[in-house]
Amino acid sequence: MRYLIVSDLHANLEALHAVLAQSAGGYDRALCCGDLVGYGADPNPVCDWVRLNCAAVVRGNHDRASTGQDDLEWFNPVARNAAIWTLEALTPENAGYIMALPRGPLTVETFQLFHGSPCDEDEYVIAAGEADQAFGYLETRVAFFGHTHVQGGFIWNQSRVETILRPPARGDSQSLPIDPECAYMINPGSTGQPRDGDPRAAYALYDTEANEVTYRRVVYDVAAAQKKIHAAGLPPILADRLSVGR
Ligand code: ZN
Q1: What would the pLDDT profile of 56-109 be if each residue is shown by its tens digit?
Q2: Which of 93, 135, 143, 221 has the most neighbouring CB atoms within 10 Å?
Q3: What is the pTM of this model?
Q4: What is the rounded CA–CA span in Å between residue 115 and residue 87?
Q5: How far is the CA of 209 from the centre of ligand 1 (A)?
Q6: How far does residue 36's CA lie from ligand 1's centre (Å)?
Protein backbone atom coordinates (compact mmCIF):
# COMPACT_ATOMS: atom_id res chain seq x y z
CA MET A 1 0.00 0.00 0.00
CA ARG A 2 1.21 3.49 -0.84
CA TYR A 3 0.23 6.25 1.57
CA LEU A 4 0.19 10.02 1.27
CA ILE A 5 0.83 11.46 4.75
CA VAL A 6 0.08 15.10 5.42
CA SER A 7 0.13 17.07 8.66
CA ASP A 8 -0.48 20.60 9.89
CA LEU A 9 -2.47 21.73 6.88
CA HIS A 10 -3.65 24.77 8.82
CA ALA A 11 -6.41 25.79 6.41
CA ASN A 12 -3.94 26.53 3.60
CA LEU A 13 -5.79 25.44 0.46
CA GLU A 14 -3.12 26.62 -2.00
CA ALA A 15 -0.49 24.46 -0.27
CA LEU A 16 -2.83 21.46 -0.18
CA HIS A 17 -3.64 21.80 -3.88
CA ALA A 18 0.07 21.87 -4.77
CA VAL A 19 0.68 18.73 -2.70
CA LEU A 20 -2.22 16.93 -4.35
CA ALA A 21 -1.10 17.96 -7.84
CA GLN A 22 2.46 16.76 -7.26
CA SER A 23 1.52 13.49 -5.53
CA ALA A 24 -1.35 12.54 -7.87
CA GLY A 25 -1.14 8.88 -8.86
CA GLY A 26 1.61 8.23 -6.32
CA TYR A 27 -0.52 6.85 -3.48
CA ASP A 28 -3.53 4.64 -2.69
CA ARG A 29 -4.67 6.13 0.63
CA ALA A 30 -4.27 9.53 2.30
CA LEU A 31 -3.66 10.03 6.04
CA CYS A 32 -3.45 13.14 8.23
CA CYS A 33 -1.56 13.75 11.50
CA GLY A 34 -3.76 16.65 12.64
CA ASP A 35 -4.08 20.44 12.66
CA LEU A 36 -6.40 20.62 9.68
CA VAL A 37 -7.35 24.18 10.60
CA GLY A 38 -6.14 27.26 12.47
CA TYR A 39 -3.95 30.07 11.04
CA GLY A 40 -5.10 29.91 7.40
CA ALA A 41 -8.15 31.37 5.65
CA ASP A 42 -9.66 28.23 4.09
CA PRO A 43 -10.73 25.98 6.97
CA ASN A 44 -13.81 24.61 5.20
CA PRO A 45 -12.33 23.56 1.84
CA VAL A 46 -9.32 22.01 3.60
CA CYS A 47 -11.55 20.20 6.10
CA ASP A 48 -13.81 19.04 3.24
CA TRP A 49 -10.84 17.46 1.49
CA VAL A 50 -9.65 15.66 4.63
CA ARG A 51 -13.16 14.48 5.49
CA LEU A 52 -13.77 13.09 2.01
CA ASN A 53 -10.32 11.74 1.20
CA CYS A 54 -8.36 10.72 4.28
CA ALA A 55 -8.64 7.12 5.45
CA ALA A 56 -7.32 7.93 8.94
CA VAL A 57 -6.94 11.24 10.75
CA VAL A 58 -5.91 12.24 14.27
CA ARG A 59 -6.78 15.61 15.77
CA GLY A 60 -4.27 18.36 16.53
CA ASN A 61 -4.26 21.03 19.22
CA HIS A 62 -5.53 23.66 16.77
CA ASP A 63 -8.41 21.36 15.81
CA ARG A 64 -9.45 21.23 19.45
CA ALA A 65 -8.99 24.98 19.96
CA SER A 66 -10.86 25.90 16.79
CA THR A 67 -13.92 23.87 17.78
CA GLY A 68 -14.24 25.20 21.30
CA GLN A 69 -12.86 22.06 22.98
CA ASP A 70 -10.01 23.89 24.67
CA ASP A 71 -9.48 26.82 26.93
CA LEU A 72 -7.69 29.31 24.69
CA GLU A 73 -5.80 30.87 27.62
CA TRP A 74 -2.57 29.01 26.91
CA PHE A 75 -2.56 29.98 23.21
CA ASN A 76 -0.52 33.01 22.20
CA PRO A 77 -2.63 35.99 21.05
CA VAL A 78 -2.10 35.28 17.34
CA ALA A 79 -3.08 31.62 17.59
CA ARG A 80 -6.04 32.53 19.82
CA ASN A 81 -7.25 35.13 17.34
CA ALA A 82 -7.03 32.58 14.50
CA ALA A 83 -8.82 29.90 16.56
CA ILE A 84 -11.73 32.24 17.32
CA TRP A 85 -11.93 33.26 13.64
CA THR A 86 -11.94 29.58 12.62
CA LEU A 87 -14.58 28.70 15.20
CA GLU A 88 -16.92 31.20 13.54
CA ALA A 89 -15.98 30.21 9.99
CA LEU A 90 -16.39 26.43 10.22
CA THR A 91 -19.64 24.96 8.94
CA PRO A 92 -21.54 22.85 11.49
CA GLU A 93 -20.73 19.75 9.44
CA ASN A 94 -16.98 20.42 9.47
CA ALA A 95 -16.97 21.47 13.12
CA GLY A 96 -18.76 18.23 13.99
CA TYR A 97 -16.27 16.22 11.94
CA ILE A 98 -13.29 17.84 13.67
CA MET A 99 -14.79 17.42 17.14
CA ALA A 100 -15.17 13.69 16.52
CA LEU A 101 -11.55 13.15 15.44
CA PRO A 102 -9.59 10.73 17.65
CA ARG A 103 -6.61 11.94 19.66
CA GLY A 104 -4.21 9.19 18.62
CA PRO A 105 -2.10 7.21 18.55
CA LEU A 106 -4.10 5.58 15.80
CA THR A 107 -2.84 2.33 14.32
CA VAL A 108 -3.08 1.97 10.54
CA GLU A 109 -2.01 -1.36 9.09
CA THR A 110 1.49 -1.72 10.63
CA PHE A 111 2.22 1.82 11.76
CA GLN A 112 0.86 4.57 14.01
CA LEU A 113 -0.24 8.18 13.64
CA PHE A 114 -0.24 10.83 16.34
CA HIS A 115 -0.02 14.62 16.45
CA GLY A 116 2.67 15.42 19.05
CA SER A 117 4.07 12.36 20.82
CA PRO A 118 2.58 8.91 21.49
CA CYS A 119 1.82 9.77 25.12
CA ASP A 120 0.87 13.43 24.73
CA GLU A 121 -0.73 14.90 21.61
CA ASP A 122 0.44 18.39 22.68
CA GLU A 123 4.12 17.53 23.23
CA TYR A 124 6.67 18.93 20.80
CA VAL A 125 9.21 16.25 19.90
CA ILE A 126 12.08 18.42 18.68
CA ALA A 127 15.29 16.91 20.04
CA ALA A 128 16.64 13.36 19.94
CA GLY A 129 16.37 13.15 23.75
CA GLU A 130 12.63 13.78 23.62
CA ALA A 131 12.28 11.26 20.80
CA ASP A 132 14.22 8.68 22.83
CA GLN A 133 11.49 8.77 25.50
CA ALA A 134 8.71 8.76 22.90
CA PHE A 135 10.08 5.61 21.23
CA GLY A 136 9.35 3.76 24.46
CA TYR A 137 5.64 4.30 23.91
CA LEU A 138 5.45 3.20 20.27
CA GLU A 139 3.50 0.03 19.53
CA THR A 140 4.80 -0.25 15.96
CA ARG A 141 8.20 0.15 14.31
CA VAL A 142 7.07 3.08 12.21
CA ALA A 143 5.05 6.09 13.32
CA PHE A 144 4.15 9.43 11.76
CA PHE A 145 3.67 12.63 13.71
CA GLY A 146 3.45 16.40 13.25
CA HIS A 147 3.00 19.40 15.55
CA THR A 148 6.54 20.82 15.22
CA HIS A 149 6.09 21.78 11.54
CA VAL A 150 9.63 20.51 10.93
CA GLN A 151 10.10 17.85 8.26
CA GLY A 152 12.31 14.96 9.32
CA GLY A 153 12.00 12.91 12.48
CA PHE A 154 14.03 10.29 14.33
CA ILE A 155 15.50 6.80 13.94
CA TRP A 156 15.98 4.42 16.85
CA ASN A 157 18.70 1.93 15.93
CA GLN A 158 18.80 -0.43 18.91
CA SER A 159 21.11 1.64 21.06
CA ARG A 160 20.56 5.26 20.21
CA VAL A 161 18.29 7.80 18.58
CA GLU A 162 19.41 9.83 15.59
CA THR A 163 17.81 12.82 13.96
CA ILE A 164 16.77 12.29 10.36
CA LEU A 165 18.37 15.00 8.29
CA ARG A 166 15.97 17.10 6.33
CA PRO A 167 16.02 17.14 2.54
CA PRO A 168 18.42 19.77 1.16
CA ALA A 169 16.89 23.12 0.30
CA ARG A 170 17.30 22.65 -3.43
CA GLY A 171 15.93 19.14 -3.71
CA ASP A 172 12.25 18.35 -3.67
CA SER A 173 12.47 14.67 -2.79
CA GLN A 174 14.48 12.50 -0.41
CA SER A 175 13.94 8.83 0.20
CA LEU A 176 14.47 7.00 3.48
CA PRO A 177 14.70 3.19 3.33
CA ILE A 178 12.96 1.57 6.31
CA ASP A 179 15.24 -0.93 8.07
CA PRO A 180 13.09 -3.54 9.88
CA GLU A 181 15.67 -3.68 12.68
CA CYS A 182 15.14 0.01 13.51
CA ALA A 183 12.19 2.11 14.63
CA TYR A 184 11.11 5.39 13.09
CA MET A 185 9.21 8.50 14.12
CA ILE A 186 8.65 10.32 10.87
CA ASN A 187 7.48 13.89 10.56
CA PRO A 188 6.16 14.62 7.06
CA GLY A 189 6.51 18.32 7.80
CA SER A 190 3.78 20.91 7.63
CA THR A 191 1.81 21.28 4.44
CA GLY A 192 0.23 24.60 5.34
CA GLN A 193 2.73 26.43 7.57
CA PRO A 194 6.30 25.06 7.37
CA ARG A 195 8.65 26.25 10.13
CA ASP A 196 11.89 24.60 9.09
CA GLY A 197 13.16 27.49 7.01
CA ASP A 198 11.81 26.09 3.75
CA PRO A 199 8.56 27.80 2.71
CA ARG A 200 7.56 25.00 0.32
CA ALA A 201 4.64 22.78 1.33
CA ALA A 202 5.84 19.54 2.94
CA TYR A 203 4.47 15.99 2.95
CA ALA A 204 5.60 12.37 2.83
CA LEU A 205 4.82 9.22 0.91
CA TYR A 206 5.13 5.78 2.51
CA ASP A 207 5.27 2.62 0.42
CA THR A 208 4.79 -0.31 2.82
CA GLU A 209 5.75 -2.91 0.20
CA ALA A 210 8.91 -1.17 -0.96
CA ASN A 211 9.65 -0.28 2.70
CA GLU A 212 10.45 3.29 1.84
CA VAL A 213 9.43 6.75 3.01
CA THR A 214 9.86 9.68 0.65
CA TYR A 215 9.98 13.22 1.99
CA ARG A 216 8.71 15.77 -0.48
CA ARG A 217 8.49 19.56 -0.90
CA VAL A 218 6.50 21.50 -3.44
CA VAL A 219 6.33 25.17 -4.34
CA TYR A 220 2.84 26.64 -4.03
CA ASP A 221 1.09 29.97 -4.56
CA VAL A 222 2.13 31.61 -1.28
CA ALA A 223 0.92 35.05 -2.43
CA ALA A 224 -2.63 33.76 -2.99
CA ALA A 225 -2.75 32.19 0.50
CA GLN A 226 -1.38 35.43 2.01
CA LYS A 227 -3.95 37.55 0.19
CA LYS A 228 -6.78 35.46 1.66
CA ILE A 229 -5.33 35.75 5.18
CA HIS A 230 -5.23 39.55 4.85
CA ALA A 231 -8.74 39.68 3.37
CA ALA A 232 -10.07 37.54 6.23
CA GLY A 233 -8.71 39.99 8.80
CA LEU A 234 -6.47 37.35 10.38
CA PRO A 235 -3.23 38.56 12.05
CA PRO A 236 -0.84 39.70 9.25
CA ILE A 237 2.07 37.75 10.77
CA LEU A 238 0.28 34.57 9.70
CA ALA A 239 0.66 35.69 6.09
CA ASP A 240 4.22 37.00 6.51
CA ARG A 241 5.64 33.80 7.96
CA LEU A 242 4.51 31.74 4.96
CA SER A 243 7.08 33.58 2.80
CA VAL A 244 10.00 32.45 4.94
CA GLY A 245 8.78 29.14 6.32
CA ARG A 246 9.39 30.18 9.93
ZN1 ZN B 1 0.25 22.70 13.71
Answers
A1: 999 999 999 999 898 888 789 999 999 999 999 999 999 999 999 999 999 999
A2: 143
A3: 0.96
A4: 20
A5: 29
A6: 8
